[in-house]
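Hello,

Our lab assistant flagged a job as stuck in the queue for most of the afternoon. It eventually completed. Since we weren't sure the result was trustworthy after the delay, we are filing this so someone can double-check. Below is the sequence as submitted and the structure that was eventually returned. Let us know if re-running is recommended.
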Amino acid sequence: MNDDAVEDERGERLQKLLARAGVASRRKAEELISAGRVSVNGLTARLGDRAAADDDVRLDGEPLLATGRPVTYLLNKPPGYVTTANDERGRPTVFELVPRAPGLHAVGRLDLESEGLLLLTTDGELTLRLTHPRYGHEKEYRVWCDQGELAPAATARLTAGVILEDGLARALAAQPAAGGALIVLGEGRKRQVRRMVTAVGYDVARLQRTRVAGLELGDVGLGEWRTLDLSDFKALGYNPADRH
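-- returned structure --
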């Protein structure tokens, strides 16, 4: 019998289950268990304990994923994943890459072949703050093009504004970079970066979002995720305590 089968029969180690639920990192989850804050089926859990999917796992007496505290993940989205919960064509979705949580949704979108920083959250107020035009949060993109680095004249056109089929589009900032350009937008129309780059005569070979507001992708590996902490929310200009 392989290890996966053993894991299925006996359930997951609690620290792994807590981490997958977005409650804490595995190390922090171990601390929560050692402190007696986690229970399984009414019994205080100990390090080394496991729990199955139908077990009643609680943190501080509250059911897991029902603690009333929203969860927010930063995912480094890989190419080839759609930003929807279900896809009628059977393509993989970003929700397969992060722990499940009731009400989890993506904050905005990255198209199928784009990669980089994508936020997924259960916090509707955070989504509003980051997507409503009145808040004007910047989004930064690294672009690589088939023709190589954009000429200064091309990046100047991006900041001056180009006409797309849905109206004028203007970058807040744009500068040549090795193999392409670095572009900052203050809005998020469908495939906007790709269409703007095409409008100035270049073809996008690779597109990565590197920053949203003050929150950067950092060293999160492709396809990996982490849970946001208070310093991250501060970088986004958001205080979870202010939720309505």
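-- support follow-up --
The delay was a queue issue, not a problem with the job. The result is valid. The first helix runs from residue 3 to 10. The longest strand covers residues 204-212.
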